[in-house]
Amino acid sequence: MATGWTAELDKKEHKNWVMVGCALNITKNGITPLIQRQMEAWYQSLISSPPLHSLPPCTCAGHSSKCATCTTWKKELERLHKSLRPKICWNNSDRQQWGSPAGAWEIAKVFMPTLGTRKGDIIDANTTDIGGLLNVLEWCPFIHPSVNRAVLSEVRDKGRNHWAHSPKQELKDADVNTIFGHLNSLLSDPVFKADKAVQESSKNLQDLFLHRLVNVRESEVEALHLLRQSLVADVTEVKTRSSISKEKIAELRDQLAELDTEVHAARSDLGKGQNDLLE
User: Fold this and answer.
1) Mind listing the pLDDT tens digit for each residue in 175-186?
2) How far apart are CA 43 and CA 37, in angstroms?
3) What pTM value is reported for the model?
4) Checking CA distances to 197, which of 51, 103, 185, 277 falls within 20 to 30 Å?
5) Percentage of residues in the chain with pLDDT exceeding 70?
6) In contact, 29 and 203? CB cutoff 8 Å
7) Mean pLDDT, range 221-248, rounded to an integer
8) What tens digit of pLDDT does each residue of 98-128 get?
9) What is the rounded distance in angstroms from the CA atom of residue 235 to the CA atom of residue 16?
10) Cα(106)–Cα(127) distance, rounded to whole angstroms?
């Protein structure tokens, strides 16, 4: 009989949590190709049309952003942002790439929450977590018509955030049903439903829901990796909000430390299980 922390891993509610982590990954992988294609196409239209066409490269020194090129870009991006009062994290993006052939995702990053030291690792839709993609879908006008904003909010708040901030990494069956419903709504949005990658992800999501997890330990490592990615993003974001207390930041850091221990233990357990099968 399992004891200690291994018994916790075998609880139904924890398996539910792991399964939702896999579902979030399936959904993210499904919407990524279309988002990348649409962002690149929109960016090309931006740099081929007034007022951004034929602009010279940025000439700003250091962290300054007052050259004529950057000023023009900033005014246009503020105008295009869907929020009436946008809070744009300009430091997310390398403005030296604005207008370059490969600059599409540097513009996409302007529509994301603060990325902090992670910004250099985020170079396309594939390297962006689902939270960042949801923000781009909500605030950047690169897709017409847009994805239903209510659906995006449900996936972010009742899906990704509810899962990432579950204190015991446990979810009830009702939570699973709700989150899968929101993920299915996103994949069936008119923007996505005809895309082949999304259709494949939708099928995989249905299979996961019907047949549950086949290899719980491998799925758990995947879910813990996703959780760590989500918490790092949240720590970076809350640091920029003056209303967030130091205690909250410390709490998130404690969660990350505990998570690193769990990831190590889960990987060790997975490796031991694989060795046992080979013997």
Assistant:
1) 999 999 999 999
2) 10
3) 0.79
4) 103
5) 71
6) no
7) 61
8) 999 999 999 999 999 999 888 999 999 999 9
9) 25
10) 12
On average, the pLDDT of the chain sits at 84
Here the tokens at position 185 are 């709504």
Spatial CB neighbours of 207, under 8 Å, sequence gap ≥ 6: none
Print burial letters for 216-244: b (CB count within 10 Å at least 16), e (below 16).
bbbbbbbbbbbbbebbbbbbbbbeeeeee
Secondary structure E strands in 8-95: none
Indicate the DSSP class of residue 156. I
Residue 107 in contact with residue 121, Cβ under 8 Å? no
- C-beta separation of 110 from 77 below 8 A: yes
What is d(CA 180, CA 76) in angstroms, rounded to the nearest whole number?
Answer: 37
Respond yes or no on whether the N-terminal peptide bond of residue 50 is cis (omega within 30° of 0).
no
